[in-house]
């Protein structure tokens, strides 16, 4: 029996020593010194994680000025602040000693005032340096009056593995700085619908409202992600499925934001779909991973490089590509004017192409027009579709025609059933090729309207009497 207990202690010691070794290089002198604790790591990382409180003024009209008679003279200028103001909370991470803080865009979006509270309780008013809702990140600056603050070092999110230990630090529910731990559940989770790039680290570390913008750190104390969202039942908190923006994307955003720029989507001029198991079987391909190319923009980077329809993209710069979201993510980490090595499968053979990354061209010019008057499209904004606009509004592989880019809620177009992203193919008997054509048609008075549109790849017809 004694031998069994000794064996158990030896096994536990073997399991614990590598983790303990992260915190100290000293060899434990006895059993009592061997213990599993995150305390040294928390002590190192926590001072660089901040709490963020925002204020947003809301307004209500004075009752007297709700009268149309007064509004025609004074408009909406006579508004009074409604008290209390809307408050929200979140977390952030110091990424430079000079006081740069990165957080989620949704934490600070439309705020009138941003307050950053440090680990030691000091408060600072923060200035918004830059924000990008496509990646849901924002960069703040706090004035340190010449002093330096602790900052987290960026880790390489490409080097993490499923099963790695991680820690999440943030301000859940506003209770104050809180530390939770877990493991990496997935390194490249897509199809979440959280943001345009849709490529996340998934973890089971408990993350709740208020954790947004907080740090996900590895066992070296480095930042590997910004905690962003959770999957939960309606009205519930964390159920062990949490998502963080990978640090490599965060670093790309920070570098761009410091220059006053946003992360753009490098464009190669292809569209396609994830290679399914059924398609892989038909094409005699062993592993159903990659993007089956369905269309190529003539004269675009992929076309010039020699990539063809039905090629399967499997890697970018040796990083595996499983679906369109992972391709968008990998390209977004690169810069325009640089080359990317795209590996494809063609007739079961691997080929590599060096493709020059560029910005999607705005050809033709969008010529955005807001439709007014009384017609089925009233309240919508239409534009000439181009690769640039398609990238902006996330229309995969749609490069030509006229698109509805926006619709005012409650407008005629909204009530008719049009949606942003609808491509106008035909109105009555006229084919639609540009905005000017739509404007000319809408000048006429028809007893019946018929619209052929393309929505999510399907052709639909809307008929109105």
Describe this structure in words.
- The protein is an alpha+beta fold.
- It folds into four domains: 2-37; 38-261, Beta Barrel (Thrombin, subunit H); 270-356, Pdz3 Domain, CATH 2.30.42; 369-464, Pdz3 Domain.
- Helix content is 20%, strand content 34%.
- The chain has eleven helices and 25 strands.
- The protein has helices at residues 2-23, 39-45, 68-74, 105-108, 247-258, 277-282, 301-305, 324-332, 387-392, 412-416, 435-442, and strands at 49-61, 79-94, 100-103, 113-117, 123-132, 137-142, 165-170, 178-189, 200-203, 215-217, 223-230, 242-246, 270-274, 291-296, 312-316, 319-320, 339-346, 349-356, 369-370, 380-384, 402-407, 423-427, 430-431, 449-455, 458-464.
- Strands 19, 20, 21, 22, 23, 24 and 25 form a seven-stranded antiparallel β-sheet that branches.
- A hairpin with a 5-residue loop joins strand 4 and strand 5.
- The longest helix is centred in the first third of the chain and has 22 residues, at 2-23.
- The radius of gyration is 27 Å and the shape is globular.
Radius of gyration: 27 Å
CATH architecture of the largest domain: Beta Barrel
- What is the fold-level CATH name, i.e. the topology of the largest domain? Thrombin, subunit H
Count of all domains: 4
- The CATH class of the largest domain, by name, is Mainly Beta
What does the oligomeric state look like here?
A: single chain
Q: Which class of secondary structure composition applies to the elements?
A: alpha+beta
């Amino acid at each position: 029996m004694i031998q069994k207990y000794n064996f158990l202690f030896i096994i536990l010691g073997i399991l614990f020593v590598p983790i303990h070794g992260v915190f100290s290089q000293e060899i434990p002198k006895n059993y009592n010194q061997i213990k599993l604790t995150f305390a040294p790591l928390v002590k190192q990382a926590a001072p660089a994680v901040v709490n963020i409180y925002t204020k947003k003024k809301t307004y209500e009209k004075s009752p007297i000025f709700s009268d149309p008679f007064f509004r025609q003279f004074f408009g909406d200028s006579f508004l009074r602040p409604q008290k209390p103001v809307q408050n929200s909370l979140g977390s952030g991470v110091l990424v430079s000693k000079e006081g740069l803080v990165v957080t989620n865009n949704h934490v600070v979006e439309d705020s009138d005032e941003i307050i950053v509270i440090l680990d030691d309780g000091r408060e600072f008013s923060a200035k918004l340096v830059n924000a990008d809702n496509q990646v849901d990140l924002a960069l703040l600056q706090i004035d340190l009056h010449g002093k330096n603050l602790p900052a987290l070092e960026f880790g390489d999110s490409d080097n993490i593995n499923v099963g790695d230990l991680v820690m999440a630090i943030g301000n859940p529910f506003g209770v104050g700085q809180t530390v939770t731990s877990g493991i990496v559940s997935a390194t490249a989770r897509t199809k979440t619908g959280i943001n345009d790039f849709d490529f996340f680290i998934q973890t089971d570390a408990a993350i709740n409202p208020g954790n947004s913008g907080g740090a996900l750190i590895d066992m070296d104390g480095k930042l590997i992600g910004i905690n962003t969202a959770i999957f939960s039942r309606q009205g519930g908190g964390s159920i062990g499925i949490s998502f963080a923006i990978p640090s490599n994307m965060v670093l790309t955003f920070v570098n761009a934001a410091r220059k006053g720029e946003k992360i753009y989507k490098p464009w190669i001029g292809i569209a396609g779909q994830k290679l399914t198991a059924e398609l892989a079987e038909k094409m005699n391909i062993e592993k159903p991973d990659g993007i089956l190319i369905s269309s190529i923009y003539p004269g675009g980077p992929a076309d010039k490089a020699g990539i063809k329809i039905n090629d399967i993209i499997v890697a970018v710069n040796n990083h595996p590509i499983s679906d369109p979201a992972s391709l968008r993510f990998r390209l977004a980490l690169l810069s325009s004017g640089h080359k990317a090595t795209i590996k494809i499968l063609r007739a079961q053979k691997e080929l590599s192409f060096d493709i020059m990354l560029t910005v999607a061209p705005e050809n033709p010019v969008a010529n955005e027009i807001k439709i007014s008057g009384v017609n089925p499209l009233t309240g919508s904004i239409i534009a000439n579709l181009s690769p640039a606009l398609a990238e902006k509004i996330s229309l995969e592989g749609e490069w030509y025609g006229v698109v509805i880019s926006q619709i005012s809620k409650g407008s005629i177009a909204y009530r008719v059933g049009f949606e942003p992203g609808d491509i106008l193919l035909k109105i009555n008997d006229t084919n639609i090729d540009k905005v000017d054509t739509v404007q000319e048609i809408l000048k006429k008075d028809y007893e019946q309207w018929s619209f052929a549109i393309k929505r999510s790849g399907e052709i639909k017809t809307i008929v109105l009497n």
